[in-house]
Specification:
It contains 9 helices and 9 strands. The protein has a 7-stranded mixed sheet with strand order 3-2-1-4-7-6-8, with helices on both faces. A two-stranded antiparallel sheet has the order 5-9. It has a single domain, classed as Spore Coat Polysaccharide Biosynthesis Protein SpsA, Chain A, CATH 3.90.550.10. β2, α2 and β3 form a beta-alpha-beta unit. It has 265 residues and is of the alpha/beta class.
Length: 265
């Protein structure tokens, strides 16, 4: 399957707009042929973002005005932000990227399309991804503390990952469904499927708010509930690669999660 248009969606308020500028440059440099790419940037400085984008090749930048959210609102409200902008997100495939992600290899029709021409793709979290059996043995041999931590997680909560274990939250995942833990920083889907996801999770975040509850890891907790309860495609952490995790060394770095200072919050 191939796709003809791609919308790259990010939220970047306050200092995060500077991270997004580096991301935008990396996307512009790694666009496959015959692909119409629009960068949708939700920010408190949309005019600045569009001025910056005017000099980028191969992409169109569209700025969307939002309040200067800080953490955790900038993460917790992203489904609401995208849901309210549905009519402006018109591309065939929509990909969400955290503002501090960098693209290192071409993103095109074959990388992001699915064989079925539909669906959402989630990316396994780099911190909780474990390689094949041989690779896992090598990883555990080199890091006994990791082996102990994983064994404890399996015993204590039923799976490796930062699962939301609070039954009061709409992000709660029952123990028997804690199989694969996904990152919140990169995910994508065909337009209808992407927008269906954000509408559903916007509603669930709102239900939590009305109940006075906040999910453990905000947007990531909610998308892991979605991943545990819905059919979807899955990619390995090449699409959310972090150099902090040595067990990813055998994977290509396609999209990188850049380490950032805590002060940027």
């Amino acid at each position: 399957m191939t796709i003809s248009s791609l919308g790259v969606i990010s939220v970047a308020t306050n200092i995060y707009l500077e991270y997004w500028k580096s991301q935008a440059k990396s996307v512009a440099e790694h666009i496959g042929p015959n692909l119409d790419v629009t960068l949708h940037i939700f920010t408190d400085r949309p005019e600045e973002a569009e001025r910056f984008g005017a000099d980028l090749p191969n992409v169109t930048v569209v700025g969307h005005k939002i309040p200067p959210y800080r953490w955790p609102e900038a993460t917790l409200y992203r489904y609401r932000i995208f849901n309210e902008a549905q009519s402006e997100l018109t591309q065939e495939v929509l990909i969400y990227l955290d503002a501090d992600m960098l693209v290192h290899q071409p993103l095109g029709a074959t990388e992001l399309a699915s064989q079925s021409g539909a669906g959402v793709t989630l990316v396994r979290h780099p911190g909780y991804f474990r390689p094949s059996i041989k690779g896992r043995i090598r990883t555990y041999f080199g890091s006994p503390k990791l082996a102990i931590a994983d064994a404890y997680s399996q015993w204590k909560i039923g799976g490796i990952g930062a699962w939301d274990t609070n039954p009061a939250s709409k992000a709660f995942v029952p123990r028997n469904l804690r199989k694969e833990y996904f990152c919140g920083g990169t995910w994508w889907g065909y337009r209808a499927d992407f927008l269906s996801l954000v509408a559903e999770l916007d509603d669930r975040v709102s239900q939590d708010e009305r109940a006075g509850v906040m999910a453990k890891w905000h947007d990531e907790s909610h998308i892991n509930w979605w991943g545990a309860t819905h059919q979807h495609h899955t990619k390995n952490p090449s699409y959310c690669y972090s150099v902090s995790y040595k067990w990813l060394a055998g994977l290509p770095m396609i999209i990188q999660a850049v380490d950032k200072a805590e002060a940027t919050r």
